[in-house]
Design goal:
Blueprint: E1 10-16, H1 22-25, E2 26-33, E3 42-52, H2 54-61, H3 65-68, E4 76-77, E5 81-89, E6 99-102, E7 116-120, E8 124-126, H4 133-136, H5 139-153, E9 159-163, H6 168-179, E10 184-188, H7 192-197, E11 202-204, H8 215-219, E12 222-227, H9 232-238, E13 244-252, H10 266-285, E14 291-293, H11 304-313, H12 331-343, E15 350-353
Parallel strand pairs: 9-10, 9-12, 10-11, 12-13, 13-14
Antiparallel strand pairs: 1-2, 1-4, 3-5, 3-7, 3-15, 5-6, 6-8
Helix pairs in contact: 5-6, 5-11
Bound molecules: NADP nicotinamide-adenine-dinucleotide phosphate.
The site of NADP nicotinamide-adenine-dinucleotide phosphate (NAP) has 27 residues, from helix 2, helix 5 and helix 6.
Domain Enoyl reductase (ER): 20-352
Protein name: Alkenal/one oxidoreductase, chloroplastic
GO molecular function, one term: oxidoreductase activity
C-alpha cells in the first residue's frame, strides 16, 4: 500500500489544456505533480474512482470562466467528486488508510481525475465498506443535493413532478420523494422502467408529450415541480401555471429560466442575480404562477454526508450509475465519459475508475 513515505512525485492525471472541444483539450498524462498538504484541514487521498457531473463539463466549456476556472488556469486536472483512501492528513478526523468520499470544492470542480487529490475535511466523509468505491464516488454531490432538495421542498402527501428523473440528481430525487411520503410522483423522462423502479408512479416521455398540456395534470395539478433540465419546462410549463397548484412551488436547478448558465464577468453576475431575484419576486406576487424556488443543494453541514451514506447502507437509497461505465482511465475512455456527461442524456452517474481500492 502507498503511504506518505513511498509517495511518488509524479502521477497519472486527466488534464484540460484549454476551453471547449473535449477531444482536443482533455489529455491523460503520466507526469503531473502529486499534490501536497497545505492547509490545516487538508487530506491527501489516493483516488479509487471519480464521478463526473454537469459542472465538470461547464468548467471545461469556458461558459463560466470568470467564476469557475481553477485558480492556476490551464492546464488543470479535471473532475470533482471522488472515492479513495487517505494517504496522509492534517485533519484529526481522518487517518491514513481510511476509506473516504469527497465532494468538489466551490466555485467549481477540479483535481479529482488523477491518482491523488488533496481534499477538504468539511467536504469529506468516512465511507462504509459496504458501498464500493465505484458506487460511492458520485454520492457526495448528486445524491446529497437530491436529499437536500427533497428535505426543503417536498411534504408528506404532495403530488410531485420530477423533470429529468433519470439523471444523476433526478434518480435520487425520485427515491427521496418516496421516502418523504409524496402521494403521487410523476417523472418526465425517456426511461420509464428505470424511473418506475426508483419510485415514480408514472412517467411522461417528453419526446411525445408535454406535461403542462396533459388534461389529467391540469385537473389534478402538482404541489411541487422539481426541474433538473430547465429551458422550455419553465417557459412553457411552470410559467403558465397550467399543471401546478396556485400555491405550489417550482424548484429550478439550474436556477432561473435558462438551461445553461453563462458567466463571463462581474456584469454577467450582477445581471444574472437580478434576473433570479426578479423571478422569485414576480412568481411570489403573481396570483396564478407557482413560486420559483432556488434550493441550496450544496451547503454541507457536519453529519449531512454521514446521514446520506446511511440511507444507502440501509437500502433506502440505491446509487444509480450510467450502464456504459465505469470508464477506464485512458484518453479515449475519459473523453467518452465527458461526451456522455455533456450529452445531457446520461442515466445516473458517469464514473471513471482510477485504481483498485
Ligand atoms: N450532479 C450533481 O452532482 C449536481 C449537484 C447539484 C446540482 N446539480 C445540477 O442539477 C441539474 C441536473 O444535474 P444532473 O447531474 O442530474 O444532470 P444529468 O445527470 O446530466 O441529467 C441527464 C438526464 O436529463 C434527462 N433529460 C435531458 N433532457 C430532458 C428533457 N427535456 N426532459 C426530461 N429529462 C431530460 C436525461 O434523460 P433522457 O435520456 O430521458 O433524455 C438524462 O437522464 C444540473 O443543473 C446540475 O448542474 C447537479
Amino acid at each position: 500500500m502507498t503511504d506518505s513515505t513511498t509517495l511518488p512525485k509524479k502521477m497519472k492525471a486527466a488534464i484540460a489544456t484549454g476551453f471547449g472541444d473535449i477531444d482536443k483539450n482533455i489529455q491523460v498524462v503520466e507526469d503531473w505533480p502529486v499534490p501536497t498538504l497545505k492547509a490545516k484541514d487538508d487530506i491527501l487521498v489516493k483516488v479509487s474512482a471519480c464521478a463526473l457531473a454537469p459542472g465538470d463539463v461547464r468548467v471545461l466549456s469556458g461558459k463560466t470562466d470568470w467564476i469557475q476556472l481553477p485558480k492556476g488556469g490551464h492546464p488543470y486536472v479535471v473532475g470533482g467528486d471522488l472515492s479513495g483512501v487517505v494517504i496522509s492528513s492534517n485533519s484529526k478526523k481522518f487517518n491514513p488508510g481510511d476509506y473516504v468520499v469527497s465532494r468538489f470544492e466551490l466555485p467549481g470542480p477540479s483535481g479529482a481525475l488523477g491518482e491523488y487529490k488533496v481534499v477538504k475535511e468539511s467536504l469529506t466523509e468516512h465511507c462504509p465498506e459496504s458501498i464500493d468505491p465505484i458506487q460511492s464516488c458520485g454520492l457526495t454531490a448528486s445524491t446529497m443535493a437530491a436529499k437536500k432538495i427533497v428535505d426543503q421542498c417536498v411534504n408528506k402527501g404532495d403530488r410531485v413532478l420530477v423533470i429529468g428523473g433519470s439523471g444523476a440528481v433526478g434518480s435520487s430525487v425520485l427515491q427521496y420523494a418516496k421516502i418523504a411520503g409524496a402521494a403521487h410522483i410523476v417523472a418526465v423522462s425517456s426511461q420509464e422502467d428505470l424511473c418506475k423502479s426508483l419510485g415514480a408512479d408514472s412517467v411522461i416521455d417528453y419526446r411525445n408529450q408535454n406535461w403542462w398540456q396533459m388534461p389529467e395534470y391540469q385537473t389534478d395539478p402538482f404541489d411541487v415541480a422539481i426541474d433538473l433540465v430547465g429551458g422550455e419546462n419553465w417557459e412553457q410549463g411552470g410559467c403558465s401555471g397550467a399543471a401546478i397548484k396556485r400555491k405550489g412551488i417550482y424548484v429550478a436547478l439550474p436556477p432561473g429560466v435558462q438551461s445553461e448558465i453563462e458567466l463571463h464577468g462581474c456584469w454577467g453576475l450582477v445581471s444574472l442575480s437580478f434576473q433570479w431575484l426578479w423571478l422569485v419576486l414576480w412568481t411570489t406576487l403573481h396570483p396564478k404562477v407557482p413560486r420559483n424556488v432556488m434550493p441550496d443543494g450544496l451547503d454541507l453541514r457536519d453529519g449531512d454526508l454521514r446521514e446520506m451514506l446511511n440511507d444507502v447502507v440501509e437500502g433506502r437509497i440505491k446509487p444509480v450509475l450510467d450502464p456504459s461505465g465505469p470508464f477506464e482511465f485512458n484518453n479515449d475512455s475519459v473523453r467518452e465519459a465527458f461526451h456522455l456527461q455533456g450529452s445531457k442524456h446520461a442515466h445516473g452517474k458517469v464514473v471513471v475508475k482510477i485504481a483498485d481500492a
